[in-house]
Design a protein that fits this description.
The chain has helices at about 45-55, 70-75, 90-95, 110-120, 120-135, 140-145, 175-185, 215-220; strands at about 15, 20-25, 25-35, 65, 80, 155, 170, 190-195, 200-205, 235-245. The chain is an alpha+beta fold and about 240 residues long. The strands form two sheets. Strands 1, 2, 3, 4, 8, 9 and 10 form a seven-stranded mixed β-sheet that branches. It has a three-stranded antiparallel β-sheet with strand order 5-7-6, with helices on one face. α3 crosses α4 (about 110-120) and α4 crosses α5.
């Protein structure tokens, strides 16, 4: 697998795209996003996807980062926008949400309503109050910490995203660590998963064979090599390229 060359597999295979490098603790890591040839459908078995799109490209010593979203999609942890009835509280919270130029989904009151239903009104109200106080002192992220219940990991309802994620919310999987361990046990390939975007990366699971702490895995993935939107790269192969010296 060439670091600077894209290889096209057959119609049902994945494409190994150009490597992106990251140096952590003096070690250079190559990250190869795998582009899948089609949209992954809700409820597709993750093990089948891993065997088809990931296993053929791995070498000894590799580990794989998979997106949190693909776990949720395979587990049908999704909700259509038509089932969401926006409350006054969701519209109030939306007014205080920090807007990012490349992340507009939390500007949607429907997504905030899903977060309210996941966390509960009596966590969202103090989260809103304490989050507002935090902003006065320049402290960001208090709302999400107080709200808890992993509501910050809710994805979807993104106008700029590819269909169907313009209309579907994707909820966090209940056991991402267990998924990583299960895949490593079945295929012998270490696996990590993360909630990643261009603002932050939160590592949710690391199987034993990766041999790195969540902190180190986060640094390796900090530039979000998995991409967003219509990249269709839910898997990334990570490989040591050598020392930086």
């Amino acid at each position: 697998m060439g670091a600077m060359e894209e290889r096209r597999m057959d119609q049902e295979g994945s494409t190994v795209t150009e490597a992106k490098t990251m140096t952590v603790d003096g070690i250079v890591y190559e990250r190869f996003p795998l582009k899948v040839p089609r949209l992954i459908e809700f409820g597709e078995r993750l093990e089948d996807l891993f065997e088809q799109f990931v296993v053929p490209h791995c070498q000894p010593g590799d580990w794989v980062m998979l997106s949190e979203k693909i776990i949720s999609v395979s587990e049908r942890r999704v909700r259509h926008i038509s089932t969401v009835k926006v409350s006054w509280l969701a519209r109030l919270v939306e007014k205080g949400v920090l807007k990012h130029s490349n992340m507009t989904a939390w500007s949607r009151p429907e997504k905030i309503q899903v977060a309210i239903e996941e966390a509960g009104v009596w966590r969202i109200i103090p989260a809103m109050i304490l989050g507002g106080i935090g902003k006065l002192f320049g402290i960001r992220g208090v709302f999400w910490i107080v709200a808890g219940n992993r509501v910050s990991e809710i994805d979807g309802f993104i106008p700029e995203d590819m269909y169907p994620y313009t209309e579907w919310a994707v909820l966090p999987p209940p056991d991402p660590q267990g998924v990583c361990e299960r895949l490593e046990k079945q295929f012998g390939i270490p696996v990590a998963t993360a909630d990643a975007n261009y603002i932050n990366v939160k590592v949710l699971g690391v199987s034993p064979g990766v041999g790195l702490s969540k902190k180190t895995v986060r640094l390796i993935l900090l530039d979000n090599p998995i991409g967003q939107g219509d990249k269709m790269t839910p898997f990334v192969i990570v490989r040591k390229a050598g020392d930086s010296k």
